[in-house]
Design a protein that fits this description.
This protein is an alpha+beta fold and 731 residues long. The chain has twelve helices and 41 strands.
């Protein structure tokens, strides 16, 4: 009996053990638990339904639970279906014994499906902002995911869910012509964090790679951080306009090619606004072409239409609206390549900048100072400045140009938004100009005025510019009124003419010289004095010099001017100036236009004198009126031992010349022409009465195509006789 009981017990244990082994390894397939599982799925959300095939149940005796697995299930959310590869779960055996069936966890492995379906499913479980944001931005994407959920004893889903998956061939909704496509990445999602690995996609058909990106909840926002690698990428001007907004910077970029490594972070609030943006970048700028919209021809004579930045190494740090940029590379703005270093710092209050440009083969011209850099000399340009964001003023703390022994320095130069000079603290100039003359000057600010001192200064270029300047040429450089006190030891009027101890002052107002007194003297104590005085009746300008040659020689139509003094008077009101210029006791070697007139009038003897030893004049006076580009000559009169001239007319700058007048080969009209030695024989021959008093002439046409006509006259006009008698009486 005992043996039978023992055998039955052994057999029962073997059967039970075999059953346990079978349940633990192979399990059983049944649909008995389908309804309970479906009910628990509904506990997650009432709109969820699940269609199950037979469930495979495997015993986990060590944890006193059942492992449940099914394949080919379908989870339904309204009209949306989520095709599931398999579902796994664990059921507490204790809950079955207590008739309180509940799932301890749920593992769902999906087939390849549309990502929006998964997001809809996850939002039913935990409707968080990141899911809503993701769903709004995603257009299409294929997804394979593993979803893990845990339940408490009441069947409620715990917050420690985990979703791992892989997305391929995704795309986001296009925003303002920005398109993301071919998106591939691995992701992991839990209650606190969403992370991405090996993200790569096409950004408007340009491939970008993000090795690591994370997003997690921080207070009421979601914080995003990551890394980005941009391999060589090229963008044309139309793509740049679509992708990047440079309207505030007003940078007309033509094309760009670059590589970059970026580390970034930012937060997104519930309104999808980006905050706390931080970016640190290492940029390899291979090429950047910017359209040159600046008029730099006078400064850089070989300037090109495009500015090229080539092979720049740049580090960029961005925090919200503040950034720091530091870089160096090659710059091509003319025919040859220059080097540039720069540092830009923008905060919430101001914008600081620092540039260093090294020029070697390219030219540079400072026209106002008559300076030109040599084509094969090294020039360094350093600029340090600041711009307050609360106003439009630009402050150049220091501007320096250095080339060999030439040095230019500007301290604290203030410009307003129209780029007019508001003030400058100090200017130092020490250079040799294009005339090979030394310039050594210092300008210092003293309260609201300035003191200009110097050892030497070449004024040749400035004088030429003043004589040629028209109203349209006027440069608007200054904003405020100021006074410049001048004390210069040696001033060059031209290469051969020097004045000493130039002193006085210039008073500027409304970008013009309103008042001035300048005194100086030549080597033989000949004086030169300039005065400008603004009154209610107009601005009065006077200039007197004992040596007229340095000023008269500037006019190309006069050659070989010698001796003489010059006296000039002008009054200007409402843009119209009336002037008188008098030159006394001078000789002219050659006046081509006058020689031509004499030749046409058959006064060949005087013409030969003019182009030979020269003709002397005792008096020259011209009265003229200027209004814009129009110069009206009311009267030009010159008298000399050989010839006298009276003329009037007008000159329209670069457009039209119209002059008429009279030439008389004598100074004493009441004397018989034939009695003048040499001249009488030339004009009238040996027979008295065969000659003429002179000739009348007309000159008219474009300055480059003048037409001249000459007619002999035997009777002089009363006006000519009157003016000649006045001059004779005066002398």
């Amino acid at each position: 009996m005992r043996k039978i009981i023992f055998r039955v017990l052994i057999l029962t244990l073997l059967v039970f053990f075999s059953f346990i082994v079978y349940l633990s390894t192979i399990g059983i397939n049944t649909n008995k638990l389908n309804s309970q599982i479906s009910e628990k799925i509904k506990n997650i959300h009432q709109d969820l339904e699940i269609k199950l095939k037979k469930v495979n149940i495997i015993l986990d005796p060590f944890n006193f639970r059942l492992k449940v697995k099914t394949s080919g299930a379908i989870i339904k959310n309204g009209s949306k279906n989520l095709n599931v590869e398999n579902i796994k779960s664990n059921i507490s055996i204790k809950s079955l014994i207590d008739s309180q069936f509940y799932l301890t966890d749920l593992f769902i492995s999906t087939k390849s499906l549309e990502i929006k379906k998964l997001i809809s499913f996850v939002r039913l479980v935990h409707d968080k902002p990141q899911f809503f944001i993701t769903e709004k931005f995603i257009d299409t994407a294929n997804l394979t995911a593993d979803i893990y959920l845990e339940f408490d004893e009441k069947g409620n889903v715990k917050k420690n869910f985990v979703v791992n998956g892989y997305v391929n061939d995704g795309s986001l909704r296009s925003i303002k012509k920005i398109k993301f496509s071919k998106i591939n990445f691995i992701f992991s999602l839990n209650q606190n964090e969403l992370s991405f690995k090996d993200v790569n996609f096409l950004f408007n058909n340009k491939k970008l790679v993000f090795p690591d990106v994370k997003a997690f909840k921080k207070k009421n926002n979601f914080f995003v951080s990551g890394k980005n690698i941009i391999k060589k990428i090229s963008l044309a001007d139309n793509e740049i306009k679509d992708l990047l907004n440079f309207t505030q910077l007003k940078i007309p970029i033509k094309d760009i090619e670059f590589e970059a490594k970026n580390v970034f972070s930012f937060s997104i609030n519930n309104s999808l606004k980006i905050k706390d943006l931080k970016i640190n970048s290492e940029l390899n700028l291979i090429k950047l072409d910017v359209l040159n919209g600046l008029d730099l021809k006078k400064l850089l004579p070989n300037v090109q239409n495009n500015i090229n930045f080539i092979n720049h190494k740049i580090s960029v740090g961005l925090i919200n609206k503040s950034f720091k940029v530091k870089g160096e590379g090659n710059l091509k703005i003319q025919n040859e390549i220059d080097k540039i270093q720069y540092e830009l710092n923008k905060s919430t209050k101001d914008f600081n900048f620092n540039f260093l440009i090294e020029m070697s083969k390219n030219p540079l011209i400072l026209d106002l100072l008559n300076y030109q850099k040599g084509t094969n000399s090294d020039l360094k340009i350093s600029v340090v400045g600041n711009k307050k964001l609360t106003d439009d003023d630009i402050i150049f703390k220091d501007i320096s140009l250095t080339e060999k022994d030439n040095f230019f320095n500007f301290k604290k130069l203030y410009l307003n938004k129209e780029y007019k000079i508001q003030s400058v603290e100090k200017i130092q100039l020490n250079f040799v100009d294009k005339d090979n003359l030394k310039n050594v000057l210092t300008l210092n600010k003293q309260k609201q005025n300035y003191i200009l001192k110097g050892e030497s200064f070449n004024a040749n270029k400035i004088i030429n510019d003043l004589l040629k300047t028209t109203k349209s040429d006027k440069k608007n450089l200054f904003k405020d009124s100021f006074k410049v006190n001048i004390d210069i030891n040696k001033t060059f009027l031209d290469k051969n003419s020097i004045i000493n101890n130039l002193n006085g002052y210039l008073l500027f107002k409304d970008d013009e010289i309103k008042d001035a007194i300048l005194n100086s003297n030549f080597s033989k104590n000949e004086k030169i004095v300039l005065t400008i005085k603004s009154t209610e009746n107009g601005k009065i300008t006077t200039l007197y010099t004992d040596v007229a040659k340095p000023l008269v020689n500037r006019y190309e139509f006069i050659k070989g001017f010698e001796e003489g003094n010059l006296d000039f008077y002008s009054i200007k009101k409402n843009g119209v100036s009336k002037s008188t210029l008098i030159i006394d006791n001078f000789k002219v070697q050659e006046v081509p236009a006058l020689a031509k007139l004499l030749t046409l009038a058959s006064l060949q003897g005087i013409a030969d004198l003019l182009t030979g030893e020269g003709i002397r004049f005792s008096d020259f006076e011209i009265k003229f009126l200027n209004n814009g580009n129009l110069m009206k000559i009311e009267e030009l009169y010159a008298i000399g031992p050989a010839i006298s001239i009276m003329m009037d007319g007008y000159v329209e700058s670069n457009e039209l010349i119209s002059l008429r007048g009279t030439l008389v080969p004598a100074t004493t009209i009441n004397r018989t022409i034939s009695s003048i030695p040499l001249i009488g024989k030339i004009l009238v021959g040996n027979k008295t009465g065969e000659g003429v008093f002179g000739v009348s002439f007309k000159v008219k046409g474009h300055p480059k195509d003048l037409k001249t006509s000459v007619n002999p006259v035997k009777t002089l006009t009363p006006r000519f006789i009157t003016r000649t008698l006045e001059k004779i009486k005066k002398n």
